[in-house]
Amino acid sequence: MASSLGASPATGLFMVAMLALFTLSSASYFQVGAKDGWTSYTDFNYTRWADDLHFQVDDVLRFVYDNKKENVLLLFPSHYNTCNLTDPVRNWTSGNDSIRLRLAGHFFFMSSPDGQCQGKARVNVKVYPNDGSV
Ligand SMILES: *[C@@H]1O[C@H](CO)[C@@H](O)[C@H](O)[C@H]1NC(C)=O
Ligand SMILES: *[C@@H]1O[C@H](CO)[C@@H](O)[C@H](O)[C@H]1NC(C)=O
Ligand SMILES: *[C@@H]1O[C@H](CO)[C@@H](O)[C@H](O)[C@H]1NC(C)=O
Ligand SMILES: *[C@@H]1O[C@H](CO)[C@@H](O)[C@H](O)[C@H]1NC(C)=O
């Protein structure tokens, strides 16, 4: 039955491997804040940093920070805008978090280890469908 499709199991495996390669080669890593990393104690403009880049599904945001002073919260947009930290969508605290962007959409990140909204470490990224380019 399977042979009527004209593809051996080996060919199928090869195609899966090619697909995996394609996926890997079209994903990029971005260190948030570039060399400055993720910190509230900077004049680095994270909004401008994000505006200058093109993020697509499968890309990875790497947040590198001092986890005694910062963290990474993913917030609902309305919560980001009003600085409501009661209910983060997600919360990372390792100091070196690689966050893969699995969905297209608009995502809002903020640092608030002390539950206050005083820091400059806040960024929102628009994620586009993966068009296969790097
Ligand atoms: C950061 O950059 C954005 C976009 O260029 C700009 O609108 C904003 O005013 C800047 N913020 C500061 C504090 O300079
Ligand atoms: C913050 O968000 C929560 C839901 O997550 C809501 O119950 C609360 O009223 C909000 N607080 C303010 C000040 O808007
Ligand atoms: C984030 O996670 C840490 C460790 O699990 C926790 O102590 C902290 O309260 C959390 N912050 C928020 C805003 O949920
Ligand atoms: C962060 O973790 C990645 C591996 O996930 C590693 O390659 C990188 O060197 C780490 N960076 C820092 C500053 O620890």
Automatic annotation (TrEMBL):
One of its GO terms (cellular component) is plasma membrane. It holds the Pfam family Cu_bind_like. Residues 1-27 form the signal peptide. InterPro entries: Cupredoxin (IPR008972), Phytocyanin-like (IPR039391), Phytocyanin_dom (IPR003245). Keywords: Signal. Residues 28-129 form the Phytocyanin domain. One of its GO terms (molecular function) is electron transfer activity. This is Phytocyanin domain-containing protein. It comes from Kalanchoe fedtschenkoi.
